[in-house]
Design brief:
Blueprint: E1 2-8, E2 10-12, E3 18-26, E4 33-39, E5 46-52, E6 57-59, E7 67-71, E8 77-82, E9 91-103, E10 108-115, E11 119-123
Parallel strand pairs: 2-11
Antiparallel strand pairs: 1-3, 3-8, 4-5, 4-9, 5-6, 7-8, 9-10, 9-11
Amino acid sequence: QVRLVESGGGLVEPGGSLRLSCAASGAFSSLDVMGWYRQASGGQREFVASITSGGALNYTDSVKGRFTISSGDRKNTVVLQMNSLEPEDTAVYYCHALRRTIAIPTSTLREYDYWGQGSQVTVSS
């Protein structure tokens, strides 16, 4: 129903910058949240940053002041600008989208999650 395709990533030295992009396509009316998660080797997938359809931003504490999430120039896209990268940022970064629906007349909330294929970010000297 929703396909997420990431671009960007790669190898960068500590203190450097990278930019990740994610484009959503498919049969959907709206996406309520788009953002990024990451998973380091041997670790758990963790939240990084998100932006809602209303423009609200959210970041995990470890990236505040260094990463910026924003809507892309093209429709249904998001961009994650990563500055002052640290070795601890090394991970596979996954684009994520959330779609919420309210069923009528039951007022049942449903949430649907969509994931990109992942993009490797490596920060090393």
